[in-house]
Amino acid sequence: SPSSCSPSNVSSRKLSVDEMYLSDTGGQYLDGTTDITRTVHWGVPTPLQKEAYTRVLMGNIDLSRLVFPPNTAGGTVESFARRALWDVGLNYGHGTGHGIGNFLSVHEWPVGFQSNNVPLTAGMFTSIEPGYYRDGEFGIRIEDVALVVEAQTKKPFLTFEVVSLVPYDRNLIDLSLLSPEQVQ
Prior knowledge:
Layout: E1 20-29, E2 32-41, H1 47-65, H2 74-77, H3 83-86, E3 98-99, E4 108-112, E5 125-128, E6 131-134, E7 138-141, E8 144-150, E9 158-162, H4 180-183
Antiparallel strand pairs: 1-2, 3-4, 5-8, 6-7, 8-9
Protein name: XPP2 aminopeptidase
GO molecular function: aminopeptidase activity
Keywords: Aminopeptidase, Hydrolase, Protease
C-alpha cells in the first residue's frame, strides 16, 4: 500500500487562492541545516487569519529580539513568543522551538524552549516557531533558525541572530498591530 506521505487521487486536491498554506521545509547542507516554516495566502485572507498571522509573527519577532542573561533556560523566555497571542486569548499547543543539528537530527536535543532543556549559551542554534491553529479551518506557523549570540550590552548578555533568509507573507501582515521595533 502507498505511504501516507505519498500523493494519491484519494487524498490529493487542487490548491486554491482562497485558503492558507503552511509549508514546513528544510534540508541538510555542507554549511548547516535548515528548518523553516512559512504560511502564505495567495488571495484575500479573513480578518481573523490576518490578525492571527500577525500575532504569530509578533511572537516570533519578540522572542528573536529578546536580550537575556547568560545561563537562561529556554523555558524561562518561551512566553515572549506567546504574549501577542495571549493578549487576545489565543495560543498554540506545540513547543516554541528546538535545537538544530548539523548532519544529525533536525530536531536536536537538548536545546530548546521546554522546561527540561539546557540553558541557552552562545553558539547554539535553535528554531523559533510560534503558531496558531483553528481546527478544520487553517493553521499558521512561522519558523526561523536562530543562533544564540552575545548581545551588545555592558555586561555579557545573550540574544538571537536569525539566520533564515525566507521572507514573510506581507499579504497576511496587519502593520497596525506591529510596534515600530517589530517592523524594523
